[in-house]
Amino acid sequence: MNSETDKSSDRRRFIDSNRREKVVKVISELATIMCVLMYVSYIAEIKSNLAGNPVPLSQPLTMMLDAILWTGYGWLKQYRDWPLVISNVPGILFGIVTILTIYVH
Predict the structure, then answer these.
(1) Which spans in 14-81 are helix H?
(2) HSE (side-chain half, CA atoms, 13 Å) at 88
(3) Does residue 1 carry a pLDDT above 80?
(4) Which one is predicted more confidently, 17 or 92?
(5) 30 — phi, psi (to 5°)?
(6) How far is the C-alpha of 66 from the C-alpha of 69, rounded, in Å?
(7) Does the pLDDT of residue 56 top 90, yes or no?
(8) What are residue 61's phi and psi, to 5 degrees?
(9) What pLDDT band is residue 6 in, cutting at 50, 70 and 90?
């Protein structure tokens, strides 16, 4: 092994596990907030659809299917991954509403 890899590996071993858990918790909370904000941005798409300027179906459909898969994954894990579930449920809801408003305007 090269010395750079050894040094990197040594540094990771010495990180306090409590600190690592705190960092993971903060990252999890930030990622959850960002994911929800990403889905909330679909409000503009919904308004566009309702104004008679429908968006293409492929993007909201893909987003919704992705959210369904990640929600299912987080829900079905041995220990539920609540940040993953919570952050993707809005994607399912906004996806459904966006798709419905494509056809109802």
Answers:
(1) 17-40, 42-50, 58-76
(2) 19
(3) no
(4) 92
(5) -65, -40
(6) 5
(7) yes
(8) -65, -45
(9) low
